[in-house]
Amino acid sequence: MSTPAAPRPAGAPVIRFEQARKEYPDGTVAVHGLDLDVAEHELLVLVGPSGCGKSTTLRMANRLVELTAGRVLVEGQDIARTDPVALRRRIGYVIQNVGLFPHRTVGQNIATVPALLGWDRQRTRTRTAELLELVGLDPGVYSARYPYQLSGGERQRVGVARALAADPPVLLMDEPFGAVDPEGRRRLQQEFWRIQRELGTTVMLVTHDIDEAVRLGDRIAVFSQGGHLEQLTDAVNLLARPAAGMVADFVGNGRAVRLLGIGELVAVDLEPAGSSSNGPAPAPLLAPASALRLGSRFDDAFAALAASGGQAVPVLAGGGAGAAIAGWLTPDGLLGALRRITAHAADESDEAASAHR
Ligand SMILES: Nc1ncnc2c1ncn2[C@@H]1O[C@H](COP(=O)(O)OP(=O)(O)OP(=O)(O)O)[C@@H](O)[C@H]1O
Hints:
- The chain is α/β, with parallel strands linked by helices.
- It has helices at residues 54-60, 84-90, 106-110, 112-116, 121-134, 139-142, 152-164, 182-199, 210-216, 235-240, 246-251, 255-262, 298-307, 331-356; strands at 13-23, 29-39, 43-47, 69-74, 77-78, 91-95, 170-174, 202-207, 219-224, 228-233, 271-272, 292-293, 313-317, 324-329.
- It has two domains: 13-254, 3-Layer(aba) Sandwich (Rossmann fold), CATH 3.40.50; 263-337, no CATH class.
- The longest helix has 26 residues, at 331-356.
- 37% of the residues are buried.
- Adenosine-5'-triphosphate binds at residues 24, 26, 28, 30, 48, 50-56, 208.
């Protein structure tokens, strides 16, 4: 991992927009006066309808778009006073159609920034192989291929690997999984999420897809036209308590299903392990691979309850041979779990609302 350019107090924002404004030469005000912080190691998603200023905001952070007024700070430095080329070496950038160099191999594409930074061949080769493995492509097979020899999904993986090559502290992503079919997209999202947790990269990601936002974002910023920040909160809160009006419309139907996709089972959601004789009637133990565990997503829990015909299903703690039944999940338990995460969201949103006013 690279070390940050300068020590910062814990929790200091890595990217800070201060009254950032962009007016294009034809008079279009894409972003009016945005205040927004992205915290270290955070994956912040910008979401909103077409033309609301998401890409403009993102591109203000690496100076592909120059501000008309206000400031953007990256790692505490005003980027207007930073050399744009040096800035972009510290900030990875991934766009929808990836923009791989067609006449360079996958390995050479990934090595673009390391080459600019003057890394030696051995270090570059090792890093390239590591990154290909990280995004799930066999280096022996893919390093020497050209972009035209890849599927759309593979190209996007290479795009992500290239952006991560010099281990930038900050990554900007504009619809990075847009060109992939829904199933591949889901897989890429999952893998990217894992990689981001592992590397601790601070990420700002633009999407118009609310499901993607909910799946990936530590926090989600919902924009309306003109780069207005309508709501900034975590996924549960956004779904449980969307701000009235534009956000609620944008989040739309299917909120309950999305909540099922993000909640995770914890011990308080379960009937105690010993209660099966006088409490819920236990379903037969599921095959370990499909068994529920503490931390299982609610949608898996819902599927297991449906398969058991509504009978209590066992939930395991620990893995492998050491796994033990932590308790039993009943339909009421799952309802309680949904109430638990939405009640938690309500508390936080009340706090956030008073902090914002
Ligand atoms: N170079 C430009 N000159 C004039 N107007 C522009 C320019 N680039 C973008 N705009 C306008 O600024 C507004 C915001 O555009 P932006 O691309 O930031 O939106 P977006 O939310 O990323 O949209 P989408 O989801 O459709 O990509 C839009 O009205 C767009 O037409």
